[in-house]
């Protein structure tokens, strides 16, 4: 079925000037960008986004990293968009990511891992609403 998923191009990939190359991978795989913006997150916005990880030992570093520079948040739409995006990204830890995936090609560490993607329909719905109002999404 057609789905929407939230994608974040993280500060490491933005700093590498890889925004275009990463979005090209989404488009070549048949995903459409139906919303996009660049943001520099603050502690509250990044911490709220990753609220489910609040008790994890890596939470502080995660928020510190995600606020270290601008990010590009997008809504991707397409057939099986959630799983397709996760396939394109590769494993969370770039050292375990399959060759040819975004994280294998652009990421260095589990913290600076280039991209985020929603992991379920429920998280996609929450994450999209966290960054975009209905009037900022352009179905096409
Ligand atoms: P992301 O998919 O954005 O979701 C949470 C992020 O926490 C994850 O990518 C990683 O960048 C980061 N992270 C750091 N350490 C870990 C860990 N041990 N397990 C999972 N995620 C981690």
UniProtKB/TrEMBL annotation:
It comes from the Bacteria. CDD domains: NDPk_I (cd04413). PANTHER family: NUCLEOSIDE DIPHOSPHATE KINASE, NUCLEOSIDE DIPHOSPHATE KINASE DDB_G0292928-RELATED. This is Nucleoside diphosphate kinase. Its EC number is 2.7.4.6. It is an enzyme of class 2 (transferase). Its cofactor is Mg(2+). The lineage of its organism: Bacteria, Pseudomonadati, Pseudomonadota, Gammaproteobacteria, Oceanospirillales. It catalyses: a 2'-deoxyribonucleoside 5'-diphosphate + ATP = a 2'-deoxyribonucleoside 5'-triphosphate + ADP; a ribonucleoside 5'-diphosphate + ATP = a ribonucleoside 5'-triphosphate + ADP. Homotetramer. The active site is at residue 116. Keywords: ATP-binding, Cytoplasm, Kinase, Magnesium, Metal-binding, Nucleotide metabolism, Nucleotide-binding, Phosphoprotein, Transferase. Belongs to the NDK family. InterPro entries: NDK-like_dom, NDK-like_dom_sf, Nucleoside_diP_kinase, Nucleoside_diP_kinase_AS. ATP binds at residues 10, 58, 86, 92, 103, 113. Pfam families: NDK.
